[in-house]
Specification:
80% helix; 16 helices; mainly alpha; two-stranded antiparallel ribbon
Length: 405
């Protein structure tokens, strides 16, 4: 009896040590929310503010999702913020200055509504192409010309910021197309939100227990059934609670739903494809990966193409969110994206990180910014606190890596 109890305690202790970063993130997020809740007389927890909080986190989340793969390969991208700003500026310029006269001349009899939809579609495609070209350009230099990613993306940060100033000419380009603004400012209806929630719960439960069945079939050691059941129940409860809170205001924000779709796609890429396994292997041991016959140049090139596409997505959402292209668009987003990854458990030394962790890290960063804004905290304090959080996150990463070694 005593031996069984000792084994049980040891198993629990081992589980806690294994998932210490996950528990730390959850506890930190809970403490941040409780702190800002008490300091703002619980205004922080109002459905309207929580809806804005989740909407605000999406822009950095897109970048953090791509940054996870970049960092796990042992690289870094310092240009994503400026690239997002450039995509936003190009998108706004296209919508405001270029496409309206062209579309009116090509389709003089078309009504304003369809013209607006066509204008929006062209702007979205262009934004994704700009992001793709950025990824192709930087990926080629880093992967095939062997220039360090730090230098290439540092130069890219300056080039793209200059591009923002050139496109905007120092002015704000305001967008008037409602179709484009709905991308970031629209909401999913209550009924559609519950349908999406039900699909998410069913999919998650299936993944959990299908994975358990597969482990059993291949003879792998199974965790106790109650742990898988508890995981499914907790996640399902969180999904239901999230949808209830969002529907208490206007519904799930469109960019949050888009972020969820992107997260699922990239989680699958990272965990269930050769490309994902190669990315983690490359960050863990570059020389061993090369000797295994893996084309590491192609992996790095693909990683930067993907993050380039995500800067396109982030730029689209940013433009829709502020309904304009601005000279300061995307500024410092690269720091928030890197901080979100590190807070979420991605190691700056490569080989370790998860998409879900990066999203939780983005939520922590967004919670800090949102809470400080609700408190009307001075801007200089906001910068200081963000800097301290980044330093603390990197310190925790270094210490955890040292302990594992």
């Amino acid at each position: 009896m005593l031996a069984t109890k000792t084994i049980s305690i040891t198993a629990v202790s081992k589980s806690i040590r294994t998932n210490i970063r996950t528990y730390t993130m959850i506890i930190a997020l809970a403490l941040i929310w409780l702190l800002f809740g008490s300091l703002t007389h619980w205004v922080f927890f109002e459905p309207r503010n929580l809806s804005n909080l989740f909407r605000q986190m999406t822009i950095v989340s897109f970048l953090a999702i791509g940054m996870v793969l970049v960092i796990t390969t042992g690289n870094i991208d310092l240009s994503v913020g400026s690239a997002t700003g450039l995509v936003s500026a190009v998108t706004a310029y296209l919508q405001v200055q270029i496409m309206p006269p062209i579309l009116h001349s090509l389709f003089p009899a078309m009504a304003a509504g369809p013209l607006g939809v066509l204008n929006t579609i062209i702007a979205i495609v262009t934004a994704l192409l700009v992001g793709l070209l950025i990824g192709l350009w930087q990926g080629t230099i880093i992967a095939f010309l062997k220039v360090p990613a730090f230098i290439v993306t540092l130069g890219g940060m300056l080039i793209f910021r200059g591009g923002v100033l050139a496109v905007t000419q120092g002015k704000t380009l305001t967008i008037y197309e409602d179709d484009f603004r709905l991308i970031a400012q629209g909401y999913v209806s209550d009924v559609a939100g519950w349908i999406v929630g039900a699909l998410v719960i069913v999919a998650f439960v299936y993944i959990v227990f299908r994975g358990r069945q597969q482990r059993k079939e291949f003879g792998f050691k199974l965790v106790p059934f109650y742990r898988d059941l508890l995981k499914a129940v907790v996640i399902s409860a969180l999904v239901v609670f999230f949808i209830f809170i969002m529907n208490s205001y206007r519904g799930i924000p469109n960019p949050v739903l888009l972020m969820a779709v992107v997260a699922v796609i990239f989680t699958y890429l990272a965990n269930n494809t050769k490309f994902g396994r190669y990315s983690y292997a490359l960050g863990g041991n570059k020389e061993a990966t090369r000797l295994s016959g893996i084309n590491i140049d192609r992996v790095v090139f693909t990683v930067f193409i993907l993050i380039g596409l995500l800067t396109g997505v982030s730029g689209i959402v940013l433009t829709g969110y502020v309904a304009a292209g601005t000279i300061g668009g995307g500024q410092n987003y690269e720091l928030d994206a890197i901080a979100a990854c590190v807070i979420g458990g991605t190691s700056l030394m490569g080989g370790q990180g998860t998409i879900i962790g990066a999203i939780v890290g983005s939520l922590i960063i967004a919670s800090l910014l949102n809470g400080m804004s609700v408190m009307n905290m001075d801007v200089f304090w906001q910068y200081i606190i963000r800097g301290l959080v980044i330093i603390a996150a990197v310190y925790i990463d270094v210490m955890s890596k040292r302990n594992r070694s």
